[in-house]
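User: Predict the structure for this protein chain, please.
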Amino acid sequence: MKLIEIYNFLDSISPFCTQESWDNSGLLLGNLDDEISKVYLSLDLDENLIKEAEENSLFITHHPLIFKALKDLAGESYPKAFVKEMIKKNLSLIALHTNYDLSHLNAYFVREILGFKRFTQDKFLIFIDVDMSFEMLCEHIKRSLNLEFLKISFCGKQKLKKLAVCTGSGGDFISGLKADCFLSADFKYHQALEALSNDLSLIELGHFESERYFAQSLAKDLQNLPLKAIIKVSKNPFQYF
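Assistant: Here is the predicted structure, written as structure tokens:
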């Protein structure tokens, strides 16, 4: 299957034109006329994934490896070393980032991972009507994500009626957010202060933890294409002690 066919299919289910202006989704490495027989799906790229990949394959990742402008490929700093190694092996790369958050990942996370089947979506935010306590919600999230600890900011409101969810970093949505509790990947200190002043509790999911389901979500849509899609697990840059 040619790379352009895969690119066009991805564009049809999650249009690249819907990405945020600061984003860098799309084809980052490769030639559209290249023939692709094997595809690797991963949240991110790391040295082991590149080393293990077969030549002439395609990586589809959530986070763009090339995000800020590169003025040169000299040296071995990140991400230059990865880019050079991928060029040596003729590995192509497509990133599905904010466009995929909008079209698939947020809803998939809420429905398939957290288990909330009824919700509404407003761009990057998902809203869920609930009737549960804050403590009950925390325990549910720990079980769903297999987490031992949660980082929270609790405003004191124990009874919850409406949740807001955003995979990835959703802290910029706190201002004016109409919900009792906001679940997102990571929050800044002053965002937490703002949330508390607005009577809004926060539950920090972790960036890797909230988006690691990208590959299994996308794999469902690739099942009918005549190629082999392999889910790969990139390493979490953070550990817990």
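The CA atoms of residues 48 and 234 lie 9 Å apart.
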